[in-house]
What does this fold into?
Amino acid sequence: MRVIAILVFTLFGISISFYDVSAQIIRNLVLCKLFLFLLFYDAIILLVNQKYPYDLGERAINFGVVALFYCILAIISNFAIGAGDIKYALVISFFLVSTLPIGSVERGNLISIFIAWSVGFLQALIERAHNKKPKAIPMAPALFFGAICALFDAFLPVM
It folds into this structure.
């Protein structure tokens, strides 16, 4: 079941990333569809996995901390960060919270945030170096890449 959630998330993430690069926007309808799928997935896991209800509190706390981080980030940046980027980051966090093993949830969210914003920072530096008047940075690919790195960290064995 987890593999299906990861595949659906990956397909949506690729689509969202390409659209954000070309149109500089993340569509709410696509985010809502992905979020509804994740809610459905979470409901199924809640019914099937007997340990999941006991982990729900820790998962909710992790999601709440990430949501608080992004709210503070939006306020500090004077809402220069796009609303679509914030919503997508929250959907990604919800995905990680519901699919990662409980021992990897906190680390996965931290990896996702660090990598996403590091890649975004590099994109901004490159944009600033090439243009005198920088344009908006499409963050969806960076956010998606951060989530994929968190998945790799959680599910690939250390070599």
About this structure: Residues 105-130 form the longest helix (26 residues).
